[in-house]
């Protein structure tokens, strides 16, 4: 991808994400490079995100792997700014990450601070300072992106079409739910997962 193409996608990504964040531009370049390296696939491209971050929005926007079609899954417990795109047919994949060791604090200071989360208090507070810093991070990133994006050929351990759970009707709330065995009630009525209460 050219820098112009990255910036075009960046604008689309900001709209989708509903706010400007430099990580989006970085994600665009990572997904573009990763998809290119993966090349043609036998089945569908699937994705694994190593955190639920702005990277996931880029994956959804650029590859069509979404949470809804279940071509995207995320491992929040990893918490890394990285992801893998792979062929669902055979699990052949490419993992993309950032080599922090190649980001110079002297030559690209704002990008360096961005990744180490040490941008100034004024930037962290938001507003104009944050926007300005964000654009500077993008500018510095575009200068050295080819040096810091790491692409690694990998083999996915678990691939293929995910199992589709059958649906049943809960005997208490009468809503349909996906069940994995013999339970007669949904997790909420069983008391296993209550994320809301009647107001
Ligand atoms: Zn229920």
Description:
The strands form 2 sheets. This protein has a 5-stranded mixed beta sheet with strand order 2-1-3-4-5. It has a two-stranded antiparallel sheet with strand order 6-7. It is 41% helix and 17% strand. It is globular and about 65 Å long. It has 2 domains: 153 residues, 2-Layer Sandwich (60s Ribosomal Protein L30, Chain: A); 37 residues, no CATH class. The protein has 7 helices and 7 strands; from the N terminus they run ααβαβββαααβββα. By secondary structure, the protein is an alpha+beta fold. Strand 3 and strand 4 form a beta hairpin. It binds zinc ion (ZN). The site of zinc ion (ZN) has 8 residues, from helix 7. Zinc ion binds next to helix 7.
Give a short overview:
It is built from seven helices and seven strands. By secondary structure, it is an alpha+beta fold. It folds into two domains: 3-155, 60s Ribosomal Protein L30, Chain: A, CATH 3.30.1330; 163-199, no CATH class.
Describe the secondary-structure layout.
Elements: H1 3-17, H2 22-38, E1 45-49, H3 54-63, E2 72-74, E3 83-87, E4 92-98, H4 109-116, H5 121-125, H6 127-148, E5 149-155, E6 167-169, E7 176-178, H7 187-190
Parallel strand pairs: 1-2
Antiparallel strand pairs: 1-3, 3-4, 4-5, 6-7
Zinc ion binds at residues 170, 172-173, 175, 185-186, 188-189.
């Amino acid at each position: 991808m050219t820098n112009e193409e990255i910036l075009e996608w960046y604008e689309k990504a900001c709209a989708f994400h509903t706010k400007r964040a430099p990580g989006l531009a970085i994600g665009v370049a990572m997904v573009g490079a990763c998809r290119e390296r993966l090349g043609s696939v036998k089945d569908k491209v699937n994705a694994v995100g190593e955190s639920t971050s702005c990277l996931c929005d880029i994956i959804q926007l650029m590859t069509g792997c979404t949470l809804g079609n279940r071509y995207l899954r995320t491992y929040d417990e990893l918490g890394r700014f990285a992801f893998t795109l792979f062929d669902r047919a055979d699990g052949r994949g490419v993992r993309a990450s950032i080599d922090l060791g190649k980001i110079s604090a002297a030559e690209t200071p704002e990008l360096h601070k961005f990744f180490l989360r040490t941008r100034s208090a004024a930037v962290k507070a938001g507003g104009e300072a944050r926007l300005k810093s964000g654009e500077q991070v993008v500018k510095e990133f575009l200068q050295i992106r080819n040096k810091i994006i790491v692409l690694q050929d990998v083999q996915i351990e678990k691939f293929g079409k995910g199992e589709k759970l059958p649906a049943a009707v809960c005997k208490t709330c009468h809503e349909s739910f996906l069940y994995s065995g013999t339970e007669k009630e949904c997790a909420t009525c069983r008391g296993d997962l209550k994320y809301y209460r009647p107001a």
